[in-house]
Amino acid sequence: MRLLRNIENALQGTIRVPGDKSISHRAVMLGSIAQGKTVIEGFLPGEDCLSTIHCFQKMGVTIIQNGEHVEVFSDGLEELKEPAGILDVGNSGTTIRLMLGILAGTPFHACLQGDDSIAKRPMKRVTEPLRLMGAALDGRMDGTYTPISVRGSGLKSINYVSSVASAQVKSAILLAGLQAEGTTTVTEPHLSRDHTERMLEAFGAQVERDERTVSIQGGQQLKGTTVHVPGDISSAAFFLVAGAIVPNSQITIQNTGLNPTRTGIIDVLKRMGANIEITNISTLSSEPRGDLHITASELKGIEIGGEIIPRLIDEIPIIALAATQAEGITIIKDAHELKVKETNRIDTVVQELKKMGARIEATEDGMVIHGKTALRGADVSSHGDHRIGMMLAVASCIAEGETTLHHPEAVAVSYPNFFEQLEQLQNA
Ligand code: SPQ
Q1: N or C: which end of the chain has fewer CB within 10 A?
Q2: Burial class (CB in 10 A: 0-12, 13-18, 19+), 277
Q3: What angle do CA 314, 88, 124 make, to 5 degrees?
Q4: How far is the CA of 184 from the centre of ligand 1 (A)?
Q5: Residue after which a domain boundary falls, among 203, 228, 253
């Protein structure tokens, strides 16, 4: 439990948010199946990425992690060993879904399981295409839920048209495709984050891309490399919104990832009237990055839906909070995927923000928010979901009175020093 108070002053100062979670996972995974040494700088030492490290260590890969610096030593995919026990993915959907893609082609048995939240998240979206490629997978309800067991084998390529814009589905298929005979192709309804494609190229593989379709030729050998991980824009999002809604705030967030498949939050906040400036843009390890400067401003309600949704799916909880402070109506639609995240994020956002006085209603595929509403402190819960916990902590900054946040520890999944950085900006 954590007691949070309405802040008296503006948020001011310069921070660097921790490394990108999606990129940190992939750097450990590709490093573990590449030949040679991989060095990861700016790694996110959050619980999810540590789960990925532990899983590969259980399969015999030497990984030395020292804070944000990680070294991975591998002799390639063929050297992965059958794990003696269950691979525990913790709270991490990325870990289990991408690892299933890798394990689909390895000639041994593995069983993967996570926490209570993972046990409710759908795995059929990856077990189904991986079965089509020839892997033997099973799990509760015919491979829909954990624990999932996999016995890898020789794989054949597929041409898969996914019904969902999901980087985890796309990546699992591409990682299996790397081991399959022939060329594997994935097409998605809207482009999802493309870190796997970019990083496969950085590790020496060839990937063909054409808008929403990506192909990979099987049998390519990855080579260890150095990966410089930018700050996570999904973590920066909490301070972008905090900077926009806490009066007179001025925040700079340095070295933030600006991959165009992730920058929907910037586009949306600008459309709502936020003052965001981007400087020092560069590209390192195939990922663009830059410094974000936000100053407080009046916001207005907008409609958010369609192709932008995968570009901001994890930022919808904090966008909902911004919408409570925007003049007019904000409609978020086409976001059914929120229902299968760490929690049902349509329900948890609506339930918790309502407790603070927000005028917000759930819809079948999103939510409708009426602003601008003065929020009040309340007894709220993260429900064990890191992004809900951080959104509520930002809400408490502008809420009148005290807020009691239950299960604040969930933030350690993606942002271990979140509360310290929030305090730093309050005291600057
Ligand atoms: O890893 P996990 O638990 O699925 O984490 C989340 C998050 O909020 O941190 C989703 F709940 O991010 C996903 C994201 O929603 C991370 C991710 C990735 O690294 O590939 C892709 C997105 O999921 P999806 O299903 O759309 O591919």
Answers
A1: N
A2: exposed
A3: 60
A4: 23
A5: 228
Q: Residue 7's pLDDT is what?
A: 86
Residues in the chain: 428
pLDDT (0 to 100) of residue 412: 98
Q: State whether 273 and 389 are in the same domain.
A: yes
Q: For residue 411, list its beta bridge partners.
A: none
The residue range of the domain holding 316 is 2-19+230-426
Is pTM, for the whole model, over 0.90? yes
Ligand 1 mutation target, pool 99, 112, 200, 314, most atoms within 8 A of CB: 314
pLDDT tens per residue across span 2-27: 999 888 889 999 999 999 999 999 99
User: Does ligand 1 come within 6 angstroms of the Cβ of 192?
Assistant: yes
Cα distances (angstroms) measured from residue 177 to each of 106, 135, 216, 235: 12, 12, 6, 31
CA 278 to chain centre: 22
94 lines ligand 1 (CB under 6 A): yes
Low-confidence ranges of the chain (pLDDT < 70): none
CATH number of the domain within which 73 lies: 3.65.10.10
> What is the residue with the minimal CA distance to atom 11 of ligand 1?
341
What span, in angstroms and rounded, lies between the C-alpha atoms of 309 and 333?
Answer: 8
Cα angle 115-118-124, degrees, rounded to a multiple of 5:
145
**Confidence at residue 322, expressed as pLDDT on a 0 to 100 scale:** 98
Q: What is the tally of structural domains in the chain?
A: 2
- Alpha-carbon span 46 to 21, nearest angstrom: 8
Ligand 1: residue whose CA is nearest its atom 14: 314
